[in-house]
Design goal:
single chain, about 280 residues, alpha/beta, Rossmann fold, two-stranded parallel ribbon, 10 strands, about 40% helix, about 15% strand, globular
Length: about 280
């Protein structure tokens, strides 16, 4: 790969490697965009496509994002935006998990859905979309429902699991598997004008406590529906949490839930810290 590295360095200007040079290298050396991006970042060359990251994310951190593997469980309203943003951020490997196909009622809010993709598997649309916007990112499509039976296998090698589900029962199963597999979980939920986000690290029980009064059913989304903007807002907050986990920086929404009301434009923080007396008793 020395010749390829020399090729990339010759095209780098002010520390930035143009996308056109990456494409030329891929063609000239008969390799993949992922291989070229990894080679560049490992040698301190910053792909120009990420230059607006550079003031907040170092080259070493961009490499860490590229070397990361994130599972997105659910590829609809929340999941589509999560996948889009992770790919644009430069997360190198995304596992897209969803058993469903696109239907007409998805068109108002699910960024991966178009009239042309109606009837198409959501995970296949995710693969196609990421290939279009960032070919250096690898998407593994899993057209199946996440559950206790397959959860450990699906989270193998994953650094973060992103909850983009619309079922509380499956969400609780994801929380259980994530804890057992010692994988951080970023939880998001939406309904109408409202949404919330929380991050659950292994050993925490935030998600279980959020839904401690749940009995049955999918949740408030079924009653309130969802407009175009709510999933975009909540998904973006989820991706911010994923980025912080992968880079080990910033303050996470751990043991707390950020509750968002877009109708009144209010944001509230709800604590799920375990009272110290309970910790002492345990």
């Amino acid at each position: 790969m020395e010749d390829a590295l020399t090729f990339l360095k010759d095209w780098t200007r002010d520390g930035l490697l143009p996308w056109s040079a990456q494409c030329a290298a891929v063609k000239h050396f008969g390799t993949s965009h992922a291989a070229m991006e990894g080679l560049a970042l490992e040698n301190g060359l910053f792909p120009a496509r990420y230059q607006r990251n550079r003031n907040m994310i170092s080259t070493a951190e961009q490499l860490r994002l590229f070397q990361s593997r994130v599972a997105v469980i659910g590829c609809g309203g929340l999941g589509g935006y999560v996948i889009e943003e992770l790919a644009r951020l430069g997360v190198g490997q995304i596992v897209a998990i969803d058993p469903d196909i696109f239907e007409e009622h998805n068109l108002n809010r699910q960024i991966l859905s178009t009239p042309a993709t109606l009837g198409k598997a959501k995970v296949e649309a995710a693969v196609d979309r990421v290939a279009e916007i960032n070919p250096a990112v690898t998407v593994t499509a899993v057209k199946d429902a996440f559950c206790l039976a397959n959860g450990f296998e699906l989270l193998a090698g994953v650094q973060v699991a992103v909850d983009a589900l619309d079922s509380i029962s499956y969400r609780l199963e994801l929380a259980e598997v994530s804890t057992a597999a010692e994988v951080p979980m970023v939880h998001g939920a939406i309904g109408g004008w409202y949404g919330h986000v929380a991050t659950q690290m292994p050993g925490d029980t935030t998600v279980q406590r959020i839904y401690r009064h749940w009995v049955a059913g999918k949740g408030i989304e079924q009653q309130l529906g969802n407009p175009a903007f709510t999933p975009a807002v909540v998904a973006s907050l989820e991706v911010a949490e994923v980025c912080k986990i992968l880079l080990g920086k910033g303050e996470l929404l751990r043991n707390r839930k950020l509750s968002i009301d877009l109708l009144e434009m209010e944001v509230h923080e709800i604590s799920y810290e375990v009272p110290m007396k309970l910790v002492d008793a345990a």
